[in-house]
Design a protein that fits this description.
Length: about 170
């Protein structure tokens, strides 16, 4: 995820303080990995340096004075371009899963054991995501669906690869 572009999008919605940007970012996009305050302010500093945001007057708050950030026309143009451009289709053809299986087979190791362990890890994560989809708010359910569909595709690949292990081993050892 592009933190600078996400912050620009949040600023397009409304001018905000860094603290508020972090709170909204973490609520919608942080999911288990909150954005550090230092990264928020460093990113806002770079965006201001590059003319994509303007820093308003400092406002008194409970602690140090707070600065309100406002997106500029340059920032809005960059955000719009990013928002409308399709993301490169995933997955790439070189995944860690693929690499581990091929290396295990090349080295004469037990790829079946690895695939079984990976299948079990995927199934555990799928149970977690299914529970989140069932009990969480709509935004969480949407994210859970995305993750579940990717995990289902991985499981199909694991099953197909398991069925072909002998042939794959022969191909990568020759």
């Amino acid at each position: 995820m592009s933190v600078p572009l996400t912050l620009l999008g949040l600023l397009e919605r409304e001018p905000s303080h860094g603290y508020d940007l972090k709170r909204v970012y973490d609520e919608f996009f942080g999911r288990g990995k909150p954005l550090p305050f230092g990264q928020v302010y460093a990113t806002l500093g770079r965006l201001a340096r590059d003319g994509k945001v303007m820093v308003g007057e400092a406002e008194p708050g409970d602690g140090p004075d707070r600065k309100r950030y406002v997106i500029t026309e340059t920032g809005a143009t960059e955000f719009e371009s990013w928002l409308t451009e399709p993301v490169a289709p995933e997955p790439s053809l070189q995944t860690v899963l693929f690499t581990k299986v091929v290396l295990a087979l090349m080295l004469g190791r037990d790829a079946q054991q690895y695939l079984d362990a990976q299948r079990a890890a995927h199934l555990r994560r799928m149970r977690e995501l299914t529970e989140l989809r069932r009990t969480g708010p709509l935004v969480d359910a949407l994210l859970a669906d995305h993750g579940l569909f990717h995990l289902e595709a991985d499981l199909r690949w694991i099953d197909l690869t398991t069925a072909r292990l002998d042939a794959i081993a022969e191909a990568v050892r020759s």
